[in-house]
């Protein structure tokens, strides 16, 4: 099959050729490409030549892959944006694959190229199903697949080869008759500022502070489901779980910091997000206690939840005996509506929990 030229007027898909050698080399030397793809390491100019002049044309010749160059004018003036492919699996199925040049990331060029590829595959090649796979943790690939309308169908354990090892892989599908748009909400973590606080996404540099806070005796007492001992691995798993919940529209988690030094003072989360309401939960580092930090953070996040999520109610809970946490909730303007007997787990066992909420109209009148 001759390689067709596909274009939307801005982005063009075409055959790879020698003008792309420098771009292919740069892409395959990029640390992100090395981490998440199977480009040879080390990778040199000879490898780029083999990919452009031998592997890609050979795949077209034997029908195993339809590999395209993504051609568009990038911010640095270059044109090679990356390469994308459909790998024919027979019976109307193909796997989609893509890799972006660093200069193309965040420009929307790869998404436009993949839309051209999918349209061509479904309409010209008779595909019924396109499969997407990525190593668990490759959030950039997953978010791009989400934008294109792919479902997330699960995790295939130890099914993906990465640098000679078997790792877990996400898998998703897009069917010919499905809309090529997101089917759910992907929540981001906006920076919120006010009252001398700055709320921002957690980053890897926060891990030691998370471990300190979650190893604290008071935190461990009131949050009985928290791992004990709480290790760096526990913190990493918690941060990964937060990202997963944001990607599936279930929660948003912030690090609470002082703008003066950006050191994490605690965590606050909106979770169990439903069309009509959501819950807010939090924990603090010992350094933050007694300073009004958590009450201020609760104000900021409640404002955001009503304004951005359009909720009618925000809920909060605290163990009946947790006077400090209940003071935070009450000082923020929440009203106690009841007590659920044995409704929470402490380190010492089940305990009664005080139930609080605030309605949108009550919050707006504050």
From TrEMBL:
Keyword Transferase included in the entry's annotation: yes
Annotated EC: 2.3.-.-
EC category: transferase
Gene Ontology molecular-function annotations: acyltransferase activity
InterPro entries per the UniProt record, alphabetical: Acyl_CoA_acyltransferase, GNAT_dom, Ribosomal_N-acetyltransferase
SUPFAM superfamilies cross-referenced by the UniProt entry: Acyl-CoA N-acyltransferases (Nat)
Residue ranges occupied by any N-acetyltransferase domain in the UniProt entry: 11-177, 197-362
Keyword Acyltransferase (UniProt): yes
PANTHER family (alphabetical): ACETYLTRANSFERASE, RIBOSOMAL-PROTEIN-SERINE ACETYLTRANSFERASE
Official protein name in the record: GNAT family N-acetyltransferase
């Amino acid at each position: 099959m001759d390689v067709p030229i596909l274009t939307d007027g801005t982005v063009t898909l075409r055959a790879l050729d020698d003008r792309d050698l420098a771009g292919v080399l740069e892409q395959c030397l990029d640390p992100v490409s090395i981490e998440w793809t199977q480009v040879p390491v080390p990778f040199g100019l000879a490898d780029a030549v083999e990919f452009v002049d031998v592997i890609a044309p050979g795949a077209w010749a034997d029908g195993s892959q339809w590999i395209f160059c993504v051609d568009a004018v990038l911010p640095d003036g270059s044109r090679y944006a990356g390469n994308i492919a459909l790998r024919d699996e027979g019976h109307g199925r193909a796997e989609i694959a893509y890799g972006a040049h660093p200069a193309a990331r965040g420009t929307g060029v790869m998404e436009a190229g993949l839309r051209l590829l999918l349209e061509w595959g479904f309409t010209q090649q008779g595909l019924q199903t396109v499969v997407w796979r990525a190593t668990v943790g490759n959030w950039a690939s997953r978010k791009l697949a989400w934008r294109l309308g792919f479902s997330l169908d699960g995790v295939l354990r130890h099914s993906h080869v990465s640098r000679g090892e078997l790792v877990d892989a996400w898998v998703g599908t897009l069917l010919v008759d499905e809309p090529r748009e997101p089917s759910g909400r992907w929540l981001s973590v906006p920076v919120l500022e006010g009252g001398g606080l700055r709320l921002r996404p957690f980053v890897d540099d926060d891990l030691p502070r998370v471990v300190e806070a979650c190893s604290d005796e008071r935190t461990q007492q009131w949050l009985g489901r928290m791992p004990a001992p709480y290790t760096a691995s526990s913190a990493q798993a918690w941060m990964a779980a937060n990202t997963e919940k944001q990607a599936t529209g279930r929660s948003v988690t912030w690090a609470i910091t002082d703008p003066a030094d950006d050191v994490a003072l605690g965590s606050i989360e909106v979770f169990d997000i439903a069309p009509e309401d959501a819950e807010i939960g939090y924990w603090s580092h010992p350094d933050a206690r007694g300073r009004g930090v958590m009450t201020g953070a609760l104000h900021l996040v409640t404002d955001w939840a009503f304004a951005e999520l359009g909720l009618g109610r925000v809920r909060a809970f605290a163990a009946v005996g947790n006077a400090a946490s209940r003071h935070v909730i009450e000082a923020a303007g929440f009203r106690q509506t009841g007590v659920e007997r044995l409704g929470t787990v402490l380190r010492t066992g089940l305990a009664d929990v005080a139930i609080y909420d605030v309605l949108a109209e009550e919050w707006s009148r504050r």
